[in-house]
Each structure stands twice: as C-alpha cells, then as structure tokens.
C-alpha cells in the first residue's frame, strides 16, 4: 500500500521520479525501488515525503485516508 500511495502522491503533484529523488537526495533508481515496493522506506525519507507532499506519514503508511497535513491543524 505504501508504494501505491507515494506513486499516487507523486503523480498528483505532476512530478517525475527523478524530481522526487533529487528532493530526497537519492538516486532515481532508489526512489523507483520505493515505489515498486522493492525497498523499505527509511523513516527520514518517509518524513521527507510527507513534508514534500504536504501530507502526513499516517496517510502514506495507509493508517488513515485523511491527507491533512498535521502542521495545518
């Protein structure tokens, strides 16, 4: 589920994998592996993704369907 969410968030933001990888300071291949579910997402990357997409880690992890960014509350 996590890999589906990060792909959907990226597509909704009209970003390419290489753009997200650059924002995360990793290679496009590493980021691609996150989206394919072939590599676990480290906590610091998970947090960075939530900040990049203005959502929360619970949404990315599939614990909630609420995309609300906690800092906006």
Short description:
This protein has 73 residues and is mainly α.
Description:
With 73 residues, the protein is mainly alpha-helical. The chain has a single domain (2-72), classed as lambda repressor-like DNA-binding domains (434 Repressor (Amino-terminal Domain), Orthogonal Bundle). It is 59% helix and 0% strand. It contains five helices and no strands. It has helices spanning 2-12, 17-24, 28-36, 43-52, 57-61.
Output the structural class: mainly alpha
Oligomeric state of shown chains: single chain
Helix content estimate: 55-70%
Tell me the β content: under 5%
Give average pLDDT, whole number.
93
Order of helices and strands: HHHHH
Write down the CATH class: Mainly Alpha
Distance between the termini: 25 Å
CATH architecture classification: Orthogonal Bundle
With helices defined by DSSP (H or I, 4 residues minimum), what is the helix count?
5
Biggest sheet character: none
Global shape: globular
Summary keywords:
73 residues, mainly alpha, globular
Q: What is this structure's SSE topology?
A:
Blueprint: H1 2-12, H2 17-24, H3 28-36, H4 43-52, H5 57-61
